[in-house]
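Re: weekly structure request thread

Next one in the queue (306 aa):
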Amino acid sequence: MDRPSLFRLQAAAARFLGPRRFETLASRFALLELRSPWRRPMLERRLRRILSHRGEAFAYGAFDAFLRGMADLYADQLVTLATLTPQEASRWRERIELSAWPAIQRLREGGKGVILASPHFGNLVLPLVALAKAGLPLTAMFIDAAPFRWARDYGFNVVSLGYGAAEFLAALARNEAVVVLTDLDFFPDRRAAEFFGAPVRPPHAPVRLALASGAPILPVYAVCQGGQHRLEADDPLWPSAQTSQETMEWDLLRSMETFIGRHPEHWLLFEDVWDLERRDGDNRRQFAKLEAYRRFRKTLEPGFRP
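Done, posted below.
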């Protein structure tokens, strides 16, 4: 299945420059963006908050290393997308260790599937491809799945935000795995929970899915150290009649604090999750634009489905 023009452009650049030079160039451009006046202040506040929560002191030398680490990981993900081929995907064992695999398989023994919950952490493309190539039936949700339809060629299904709940529930009923991001909320319900000592919108999507399906949540994180990627898992979260939505959200936020606290440069979300009013407004506008586009496409193509 053909990829959108942006992916084709990146792939052409990677072929022309070679993967290593393309990654170096991508990292430099990413670092310029992260050091820009519209990104740097927010990222400095983020790192200060994380370090303060861990009882550690902020230093500008460490902040520069933090920015460089983010830029390198972002570039690594771009290279993965730009150079991904069926042949490259079949060699996933050379790039990533699926440390979370035994936990995933144990949870699937319960027959209700498993919800893999992760923030925008590390190179998420690698574990998605690796899990699918290892034989895990997998469905992932994106804001707009259309640019990622090519992922089906690599063994995993993709669905669009606003259309994925039924497909997720069906996948879990088949004892499959689904992937849900935990650090952005496009349907805020005005509730807040503490995250690194300040309020954020809680990760209600994976929790509500778990409570509706009975499937456990497995927090997973794509860690990269020394150029080697590893998909790690935290302790699973189990839904029950005695467990409230708020309790499961609290546990999931604590898991995110642990892994983001260890590797703050891995958190590749370039937004301020603590600026609640702005994030709520931005998310509503982004989703409204997407819905308007979908309605327009449906008028032109009655059978269109995101």
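The two ends are 16 Å apart (CA to CA). The chain is about 50% helix and 15% strand.
Next request, please.
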